[in-house]
Amino acid sequence: MEHTSEIREVRALLDKKRDKTIALVPTMGFLHEGHAALIEEAKQHADIVAVSIFVNPLQFGPDEDYDSYPRDLERDLNICERHGVDIVFHPTAGEMYPDEMEFTIGIKSMAGILDGVKRPGHFEGVVTVVGKLFNIIRPDIAVFGQKDRQQLMIIERYVENFNVPVKIVGVPTKREESGLAKSSRNVYLSETEFEEAAEIHAALTNAAEQIQSGTVSADKVKSFIRLHIEQRTGGKVDDLAIHAAHDLKTVDNIDRDVIIFIAVQFEKARLIDNLYVSI
């Protein structure tokens, strides 16, 4: 396995492999089993797997956890090597943004809901760095987790709108045995919070059963989820919405496939999850 922090060098390494298909797994590091699942999926689609490790400052707000976000490059490199990654690109912020960005990628309606409202500028930062990574790595395929489903759908639309020649592959969320979605931010949870956080997925699963049993009121489903979280955890529901699965339009009456999105704030961690519900 080869690794570098320099754009010039990673391009040179990959230019030697352009006769093969290349998959990119973009990450912010502090890798866990969810990232490992993305790497294994990438290996099914391509000859060469590249992983990027970059905590992107553009997608963090001023009061968010950019400085404290967990980082351990040596550990991440060991995990990548163990899973058969070919190249790891781990640039510094100075390498990716040597000067103040004059241009970023703007997003219309898809960033005006959910985390786009709670975290202004977040998705613009995500798409900007993904666009830069696509230009640097020039992958044939890019693999993303479905835990960040709004992000995944925005990236899919970005690729479509800008005719970017990259196939986007979404991978189901990797979970703990309890159902809690794997996340680098889970390290912020206390032992009690870690156990309680499993109720997030339980609430979504129970809500899906309600919908599939005939409940059509989105407000009724959301009230059920809020009550479930309030009664079983010390966390606070920070965001909760039900949107059409196809285009993320707001749904009042559930008469089509939907995605339930949720964010729960614990003392030091804001955890997100979602569930696709087929009608």
UniProtKB/TrEMBL annotation:
Q: Which GO molecular function terms does the record list? A: ATP binding; pantoate-beta-alanine ligase activity
Q: Which GO terms describe its biological process?
A: pantothenate biosynthetic process
Sorted alphabetically, which CDD domains does this protein's record hold? PanC (cd00560)
Active site (record annotation): 35 (proton donor)
| Positions contributing to beta-alanine binding | 59
Query: Is the keyword Nucleus assigned to this protein?
Result: no
Origin, by domain of life? Bacteria
**Reactions catalysed, as given in the entry:** (R)-pantoate + beta-alanine + ATP = (R)-pantothenate + AMP + diphosphate + H(+)
Which Enzyme Commission number(s) are on file for it? Answer: 6.3.2.1
Q: Which Pfam families match?
A: Pantoate_ligase
The answer on whether this UniProt entry bears the keyword ATP-binding reads yes
Q: Which UniProt keywords apply?
A: ATP-binding, Cytoplasm, Ligase, Nucleotide-binding, Pantothenate biosynthesis
Residues the entry annotates as binding ATP = 28-35, 145-148, 182-185
Q: Per the record, GO CC terms? A: cytosol
Q: Which NCBIfam families match?
A: cyt_tran_rel, panC
- List other remarks: The reaction proceeds by a bi uni uni bi ping pong mechanism.
Q: How does it assemble?
A: Homodimer.
Q: What does this protein do?
A: Catalyzes the condensation of pantoate with beta-alanine in an ATP-dependent reaction via a pantoyl-adenylate intermediate.
- Homology family: Belongs to the pantothenate synthetase family.
What protein is this chain from? Pantothenate synthetase
Its organism's taxonomic lineage begins at: Bacteria, Bacillati, Bacillota, Bacilli, Bacillales
